Amino acid sequence: MRIVIVTPAVPHPFGNTAARWFYVLITELVARGHEVAVVAATEESEVRVAEAKQRLAQHEGKFTLHCHRLKVDPFAPRRKWQNFVRPFSELIQDRELRELVGRELRQGYDVLHLEQMATGWLGVGNPRALLNLHYLDVIDWSQRANMTLGERKALWQAQRATTRLLHEVMNVRLLTPRLKEAAEAINPDGRYWVVPFALDTALYPLLPPAAEPVVGMIGSMHWEPSRSAARRLMTRIWPLVKQRVPTARLYIAGWNAAKYLSDCASQPDVVLAENLEHPSAFFSQAAVMVYAPSRGSGMKVKVMESMAYGVPVVTTWEGMEGIVYQNGRECWVAESDHQLAEKVCRLLENPSERRQMRGAARRLMEEHYSPRPVVDKMIRVYQEVMQSAKGDSPSLLCS
Question: What are phi and psi of 183, to 5 degrees?
């Protein structure tokens, strides 16, 4: 097969959440002998782009990577009008990007694989286009209170974009059953597949168990679900843990941790760390990872990383969305502050249970959420998209 993939970031095994999936998908497809052309519309640093190119160059096969610097229309009234007509359409307003994707399609292709909502406009009316959605703002924001005018506008645009694109791109892959149910409620006539996120587990060595009773959480704190999870841990769960396990320490890490959480860090034995060079710097110190977010759809990569590294996880249903697990075997799932704190203390006080859970969680990641099983499912989706489009002339781009 020849797959043309459009992404909003460069593929990188330790880039942002979506970039890790791009890397897994591309490298696994190439390793299996498929031809892959990637157009990455990026605003990332030159260092990150160079790192991505260097890592991908280590893989042999038929592979092309275009890193395109996204160009925003400088004429604000025109840009705003275009976004009103087509919400979230900044990406396709870049004429050079559209031409670049068009050149790849004219060389022949089997599937146009589009990552994230904003790329969906490139697939309107194309029976070979597959839109991949990792989350839905219409779920994440549905219960948010006291929104500012700007937030209300952003939600309105997200609702419009979601509705339009789910009606105009008929093939959609989603990460979890909850996302699929939401998409079906918007357009029952679409074709939907659930294929989970994958990590390259070869890049996540099983770490030695932490020797100290360190409770940890990592996440990008500008993202509201991660920020709310950190605040809940620091202000509600941590005092209960500290009361029962006085020697425990709390370690919170992630982008902008000090900016958003410094007002909660005055408690004893609480440490904030920002902008770590590598996630292993956090996971090598944590005995237990706690993640109790507010509403936030999709799979939580920080939870998957913790399980891959062998750090036991205590979380909520939201934290385990899309992961098939046995409670008490691969992780502990609870909902109330007291239940979560009790499970954390239980793990801190029981090294043998931590050892059992770390092994079970690692096996779960390798067997179900590593490149081979997940890309097996993606290839079956590609084949179904190709079959459903059989007889149709290959389409190019919406204008």
Answer: -65, -40
61 touches 236 (CB < 8 A): no
pTM, 2 dp: 0.93
- Three-state secondary structure along the chain? CEEEEEECCCCCCCCCHHHHHHHHHHHHHHHCCCEEEEEEEECCCHHHHHHHHHHHHCCCCCEEEEEEECCCCCCHHHHHHHHHHCCCCCHHHCHHHHHHHHHHHHCCCCEEEEECHHHHHHHCCCCCEEEEECCCHHHHCCCCCCCCHHHHHHHHHHHHHHHHHHHHCCEEEECCHHHHHHHHHHCCCCEEEECCCCCCHHHCCCCCCCCCCEEEEECCCCCHHHHHHHHHHHHHHHHHHHHHCCCCEEEEECCCHHHHHHHHCCCCCEEEECCCCCCHHHHCCCCEEEECCCCCCCCCHHHHHHHHHCCCEEECCHHHCCCCCCECCCEEECCCHHHHHHHHHHHHHCHHHHHHHHHHHHHHHHHHCCHHHHHHHHHHHHHHHHHHCCCCCCCCCCC
Bridge partners, 2 (sequence order): 35
Tokens for 254? 């992630």
Q: What is the pLDDT of residues 246-259, one digit of tens each?
A: 999 999 998 888 88
Q: Are 172 and 192 in contact (CB under 8 A)?
A: yes
Q: Is the pLDDT of residue 264 over 90?
A: no
CA–CA gap between residue 248 and residue 315 (Å, rounded): 18
Q: Which residues pair with 270 in a beta bridge?
A: 250
Tens-place pLDDT, residues 297-334: 999 999 999 999 999 999 999 999 999 999 999 999 99
From CA 390, how far away is CA 226, in angstroms rounded? Answer: 43
Please give the domain boundaries of the chain with CATH numbers for all domains.
Answer: 2-198+371-388 (3.40.50.2000), 201-368 (3.40.50.2000)
Alpha carbon separation from 40 to 19, 35, 95, 113, 174 (Å, rounded): 10, 16, 14, 12, 20
Comparing CA positions, the residue from 374, 381, 3 lying closest to residue 193 is 381
Residue whose token pair is 């046995």: 326
Q: Please report where in the chains the tokens 């168990």 appear, as a residue.
A: 209
Q: Which of 293, 290, 294 is nearest to 306 (CA)?
A: 290
